Amino acid sequence: MDPQLPQYKKLYEDLRKQIVDGIFKEGDLLPSENELCSLYGVTRPTVRQALSSLVSDGFIKKHQGKGSIVHKLPKGIGILSIAGTTSALGAKNIKSKMLEKPSVGQWPDPFMFPLNDAEKRAGCVQLSRIRYFNDRPIFYDINYLPNININRFTSRTFENKSLFDILRVNYGIEIIGGEQKLRAILSDKKLSDYLRLGEGMPVLHLERHFDTSRPGYSIYSSIYCNTMDQDVYGIF
Amino acid sequence: MDPQLPQYKKLYEDLRKQIVDGIFKEGDLLPSENELCSLYGVTRPTVRQALSSLVSDGFIKKHQGKGSIVHKLPKGIGILSIAGTTSALGAKNIKSKMLEKPSVGQWPDPFMFPLNDAEKRAGCVQLSRIRYFNDRPIFYDINYLPNININRFTSRTFENKSLFDILRVNYGIEIIGGEQKLRAILSDKKLSDYLRLGEGMPVLHLERHFDTSRPGYSIYSSIYCNTMDQDVYGIF
DNA sequence: TGACCCAACATGTATTTACAAGTTGAACTT
DNA sequence: AAGTTCAACTTGTAAATACATGTTGGGTCA
User: N or C: which end of chain B has fewer CB within 10 A?
Assistant: First the structure.
């Protein structure tokens, strides 16, 4: 990929891939930190930086005196962490359908998070879609992007593509963190229609605020999740 | 407290306290890493280790070239992170009531997480309680502790005390991480009674598995949360 | 006055070195 | 043979250093 990627990130991606691909299985011991140093030609702090990311993403656990043990891959939907929804279940089981053509408009008022003046002035692009796992609708989400330097965005197509991937590839915008609010709600008519649920069924509602690598540029999502068949999973 | 606490943890606790106490306010710039080095007589890697914990706990954000900016204190209930529920709202607004005397018994079957043989053999101590914020019931939780080397546990009293604090002070057990599953459910008769909700209202259900500093010793919680008035908050 | 440049300072990445502390298993002692 | 000790290996903590990269504001030059 990018040859300018920091070494610890390359090591992180490499080890993560080997875990996801099953080369390292649940319960396996990773090579020791010193072995990884030799294998990848880096020093121990660099290795530890990569391993600590794997820990916080839930891929391994470290035990002093023993080593780094591969954690079981999460069974549920890992939406609570930054990695997004595709990491756990595998992108191949996911399909998404846009509900309407993305369009520029005003922010809803009131909005779920406070907006600064620049964001308010610019207005926002709004994208709503339904995401399916194994052909069952699990997510209905509405995404709000400030209309700042994202020309030709509305004309792009998002079917079965990751919004974050498009932002990263086409605009160099990376998600670096965020905050979220959770609550349980009852499905109304629209929700029960979109998620193929009865009315008055329990739905998990997430409101998320993403920070990006572009200073001052934030992305917002309101996500409704059917948790009847599939839990939402996270580590801490 | 403990004079053997690692330096980076002392610095973390010190800065965290200053943020919670309002000495550093939202939007303030923390002293730069080099200034903190001088102030606390440690080196930059140590300072950075402390700051990175503050970042992952959502207290600050770092900006290359600018500094570390104090984040707003979360408004909702910060149960998604390890810090627990008391950090955001302040312990003074929280009361808890035990529902029955803790007692030793068998694990429920099926159980929300897989148990190993030692845990199954030992049986478990079960504690259920309701937690109130501003005299309104928000949480109903059931906690399961393996009955291994926790003598005289059932006779202690937990009213208005943190379970984790008791474990730490009396048994030297610290929570070091864990995993959780989330879903939205409808309140049944018991839940609506405990949480003062109507039946068929939406409730957030968390199932949590805590790892502790005692090897092989895990704690489990099933938490039902009324999110009608108060969101659950998290960062990522 | 306005645009540009750049020095000063912030955090990010990386190396090297050292010692502390937990775990394991083999060798030794009884 | 069983229990103990200890050496070797693991991760944890910490220091000192160097350079890269992003931000800011003041000074310079047109």
Answer: N
